[in-house]
Write a sequence for this structure.
């Protein structure tokens, strides 16, 4: 039996649907509430209207650092954090294995968003040998171990870890992060832990947030649970010595949460129900033949292309392939949230078209219909 | 009530064999209907490619043309547009029936009698299946004709033919690649015929590896001599 047919998972799906719909409906309230909860929990909190604002907030915190480290996060990719910090002279270490491989191969002429999956083993080994001045054989374990020890060595001197979040509980002030490699655990134990999340990641309670994280894992990986679901609800602290509160025991002394709008409030609610499981991408007939060209940065497939419109505007969603979708709705029938992707794309196309981004083929058809009543003449 | 057979742009200009077969069946079964000589676009292709205002103009014109008639369509795109978009945009209800549904009714009523031993697989057009929930009528017709074998992905999970949403006109090579994936699934069934109920799908799935037919063509082929000839 496929895991999504499991009665418990079906029930979870209904629960999460309800959670997401309600959360997006009450987004403003949750946003206000999470500020209060974070304050109670001693988490610094910012709302960034744009990616630039988020980057500047982060820079202000890390400007005295030489090297910082981050995890894989679509939100961090969205705001171009790495490029931004590198321009300011900081070194940014990717801790996710795939991302680190891409980072090391960066100057090779490859597609900017292609994952390490697209390299063959020899290419990866060659790059690592060249960049890290080592001699590893082209086998996955050696590659993994070499990168692991290199990253761990670098992490010793790193004081700031930056991650995304999978869900944020507004009433509890808790941040939920899903990972399998364990890297997010390491990053959250640095002196300062910065979390950047889209405002659409908000839910009411920690239980809700865990439900979202679990369902996302099921749909994304086919496993019931990931290796790790991390919850951060404040800095590391102890009062073991005469009830005197001390911070920075093993974990972070400073936790900073940044909620990013960057156009999300302009998106229709259904577009924000998404939990990022990627099912719409793998089930899309267009993505399956076109690949990464049907998407923008980490936001792939139809939902990603539509979402791009709200965070980057008409031009970006045009470039991302807004006209490549056949509006077949296969994605929607597979999506645990039943996000009506084709409807959203149709809506976005109207905006994109009005802004002047259209294709000759469609323009001709429109003209023909106007003049002769048929698309073909 | 009047029945208008709305042929659709694809039927009128790209795959006239579907219109021919459909009319043959209607005549055979003694269904009275009319054809609009000045039929124009239903608005679907405009709606799908971001030209909503132009589509609304067209739809307005059409609504005047149809008055209260019932519409019969061969195209899944026309069907979805009349059934979902006209009401959504103009708050009107259009009485529309897809040909596969009418064929099923005629079959049930004994107005057409067909038998065959074909092995057929059925491609659900996205606009008929997922968008409008019409999965059964075409299948029941095919089961009456012979053996229906399902592809790996069918009903709600059916793969797209690749033509919809303006993709065929703007990105023909992508539409072609998607079609090939679907053809592979059809070939895997071992069926003699890949049947569909949408001219866009038929046009895009056209292949030298398997015979692709609209449901109307299969029926018309098996029907043989028109009833009027028999009576004389
Ligand atoms: S829209 Fe896509 S990524 Fe988002 S929840 Fe649905 S299937 Fe998952
Ligand atoms: S509707 Fe568009 S995005 Fe969704 S599966 Fe079909 S082609 Fe892909």
């Amino acid at each position: 039996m496929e895991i999504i047919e499991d009665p418990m998972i079906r029930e979870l799906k209904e629960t999460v649907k309800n959670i997401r719909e309600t959360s997006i409906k009450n987004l403003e309230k949750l946003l206000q509430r999470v500020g209060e909860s974070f304050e109670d929990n001693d988490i610094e909190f910012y709302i960034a209207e744009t990616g630039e604002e988020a980057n500047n907030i982060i820079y202000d915190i890390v400007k005295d650092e030489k090297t910082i480290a981050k995890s894989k996060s679509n939100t961090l990719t969205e705001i171009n954090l790495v490029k931004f910090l590198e321009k300011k002279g900081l070194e940014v270490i990717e801790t996710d294995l795939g991302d680190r491989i891409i980072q090391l191969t960066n100057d090779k002429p490859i597609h900017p968003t292609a994952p390490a999956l697209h390299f063959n083993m020899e290419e990866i080994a060659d790059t690592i040998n060249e960049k890290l001045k080592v001699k590893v054989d082209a086998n996955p374990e050696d590659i993994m171990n070499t990168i692991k020890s290199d990253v761990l060595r670098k992490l010793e001197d790193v004081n700031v870890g930056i991650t995304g979040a999978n869900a944020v509980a507004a009433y509890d002030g808790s941040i939920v992060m899903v990972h399998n490699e364990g890297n997010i655990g390491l990053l959250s134990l640095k002196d300062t832990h910065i979390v950047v999340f889209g405002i659409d990641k908000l839910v009411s309670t920690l239980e809700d947030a865990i439900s979202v994280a679990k369902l996302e894992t099921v749909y994304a990986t086919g496993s019931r649970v990931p290796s790790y679901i991390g919850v951060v609800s404040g800095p590391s602290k102890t009062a073991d010595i005469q009830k005197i509160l001390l911070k920075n025991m093993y974990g972070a002394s400073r936790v900073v949460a940044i909620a990013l709008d960057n156009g999300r409030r302009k998106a229709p609610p259904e577009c924000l129900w998404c939990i990022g499981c990627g099912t719409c991408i793998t089930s899309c007939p267009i993505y399956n033949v076109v690949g990464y060209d049907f998407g923008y940065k980490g936001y792939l497939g139809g939902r990603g292309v539509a979402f791009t419109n709200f965070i980057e505007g008409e031009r970006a969603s045009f470039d991302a392939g807004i006209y490549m979708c056949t509006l077949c709705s296969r994605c929607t029938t597979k999506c645990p949230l039943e996000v009506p992707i084709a409807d959203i794309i149709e809506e976005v196309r109207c905006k994109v078209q009005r802004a002047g981004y259209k294709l000759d083929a469609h323009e001709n058809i429109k003209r023909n219909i106007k003049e002769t009543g048929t698309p073909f003449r | 009530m009047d029945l208008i057979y709305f042929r659709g742009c694809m039927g009128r200009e790209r795959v006239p064999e579907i219109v021919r077969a459909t009319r043959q069946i209607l005549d055979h079964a003694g269904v009275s209907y009319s054809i609009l000589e000045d039929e124009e676009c239903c608005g679907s292709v405009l709606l799908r490619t971001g030209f909503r205002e132009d589509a609304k103009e067209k739809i307005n014109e059409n609504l005047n043309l149809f008055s209260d008639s019932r519409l019969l369509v061969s195209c899944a795109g026309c069907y979805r547009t009349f059934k979902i978009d006209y009401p959504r945009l103009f708050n009107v209800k259009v009485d529309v029936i897809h040909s596969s549904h009418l064929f099923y009714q005629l079959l049930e009523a004994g107005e057409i009698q067909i038998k065959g031993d074909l092995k057929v697989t059925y491609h659900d057009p996205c606009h008929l299946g997922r968008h409008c929930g019409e999965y059964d009528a075409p299948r029941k017709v095919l089961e009456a004709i012979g053996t229906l074998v399902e592809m790996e992905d069918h009903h709600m999970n059916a793969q797209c033919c690749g033509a919809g949403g303006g993709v065929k006109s703007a990105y023909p090579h992508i539409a072609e690649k998607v079609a090939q994936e679907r053809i592979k699934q059809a070939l895997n069934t071992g069926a003699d015929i890949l049947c569909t109920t949408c001219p866009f799908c038929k046009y895009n799935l056209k292949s030298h590896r398997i015979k692709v037919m609209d449901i109307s063509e299969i029926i018309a082929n098996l029907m043989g001599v028109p009833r009027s000839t028999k009576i004389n």
